[in-house]
Amino acid sequence: MQYLLTGLTVGAIYALVALGFSIIFNASHVINFAQGEFVMIGGMATVSLAAAGLPYLLAIPLAVAAAALVGLALEKFAVEPARGASVVTLIIITIGASIFLRGLAMLVWDKNLHAAKSFTGDAPIAIAGATILPQSLWVLGVTLAIVLALSWFFGRTLLGKAMLATSHNRLAAQLVGINVRMVLFVSFGLSAALGAIAGILIAPITTTSYDVGVMLGLKGFAAAILGGLGSGVGAVVGGLVLGIVETMSAGYLSSAYKDAIAFVIILAVLFFMPSGLFGKLGGERV
Amino acid sequence: MLARPMLQRLASPRTGGLLVLAASIVLLPLVLRNSYFYDVAVLVGLNAIVCVGLNLLIGYAGQISLGHAGFFGLGAYGSAILASRYGWPPTAALLATTVSVALLAFVVGRPILRLKGHYLAMATLGLGIIIFMIITTEDKFTGGPDGISVVPFRIGGLVLQGERVWYWVVGGLLLVAVWLALNLIESPAGRALRALHSSEVGAEVVGINAAEHKLRVFVISAVYASVAGSLAAHYSGFVTPGKVAFLHSIELVTMVVFGGLASTFGAVVGAAVLTTLPQLLAAFEDYEMMVFGAVMIGTMIFLPRGVVPSLARLLAGRRGADSAHGDKRA
Questions:
Q1: pTM confidence score
Q2: Distance from CA of A82 to the nearest CA of B (A)
Q3: Which of A89, A263, B28, B101 could crosslink B126 through cysteines, CB 3.0-4.6 Å?
Q4: Which chain A residues touch B247 with a CB distance below 8 Å?
């Protein structure tokens, strides 16, 4: 039960990062390897703003806005100019961007680990023989709220529907008057904001530093792949499954191989379901 | 009249390119002023060998791998453990390691290469990370995060030591590696790879066993990486898990893409530029990472096909009509 709760908390974070991957992938078919850096920016910005004396209520929106701005800038200055380039080229561009952002973070902040204060106290709450930190409840609650908000956004608003349409068929979307470039722009801002929120939520539990983005980004990518790229439900389920499996295996098998086991499972799933759990099986057109 | 075909052969990208590469390797020592320069040159050569192999897989067969540092690391650690811990002769250790890595690539390659695109990227990335985790965790054999020291390479009584000796060894091996790769590309197998790159279904329809060809080139590229890894371990006398890490895989792919996909000499140029760049950027100290990232983004935006093919295209464009029907593949 304890492992399940911890796993759910970690999994919720992975799910948020994976959703960021999915949103950008849907809009542009780019895997954004700088996604982890948004997580880092969210956490680090909150910590430094809070250290400057701002209350969380002010620091958190500012940090999310900062990450979203970085996301928009990334789209404008790195992805947009390379439109029409091959997938590998775009992957290298986003990796270049992630190295750039990490270098920038090292300059703006420093190389040290930073601990953030949790939102509401550190007194553990006991549930059914296990304990849970108030911060974990925040993680789960906010993730749930975001998932609901996103499903409303994509199901009910014009912009959200435009983004869905673009992901299904870019050319057709353009023909019915959807501004595809706008959609691409918004998707980077949105997924940067999601990443930043994940970074802020996890910072009080795990501490944050300029290079937390690498592993969180990879895990988020793994979760997105596990669920099936581009599937919103898949991203959330993939994240939760990955988080739970990882904590369980760390608890029952070997904590040293925690990260390795997660990847072994992903490989196994991919061998039997080459498009992930919820991915579409697409035929290849010749 | 015999001279004409001879000249044509020399001017062909294949023979001509090999000659240019050989000439650069021979002439380079004129500007290498001290052993630090030689050291960088050896690192360039070793990376170039990995990149030439990786380019066969990514550039020609169109199968991405984000885990090749894993094979490089297995080569390095295999040689290190067998030669230093168990006292095997380095040549035997190198051979045994290379064969085992080839076998591993053969076994895992088949299921992994069934995947496509981003799923393939994920699977190779996962493979690399699993190898990394095993190497850092099994510290009884590998020394864990601290790394392991390696005895110098020797063949019989001949001990290879010092940057200058290694420069010529690695230079020679690079030539052989490039020559083998060019031969493969020009063979029916190479044409089959290019065919399945543009369309796997299409290639199968005309009778190419896509799975078989992909697996073979995957094994070949793993062997290139493993041999370079073994030599790198003996050369520097030390291996740390950093050489196996995800970021090293990314660096290797970046070198290949930077130089130009499906261009063997591009892979060499990419390795040369991106290995020396961090050494030059060391002058920027704190700004090093930012500049490196910016260079990566900039090249990909302005030269999306990589440095060598983009330049080749510029040159060809200038020469205009006379090369219109020539093969522009460098």
A1: 0.83
A2: 5
A3: A263
A4: 214
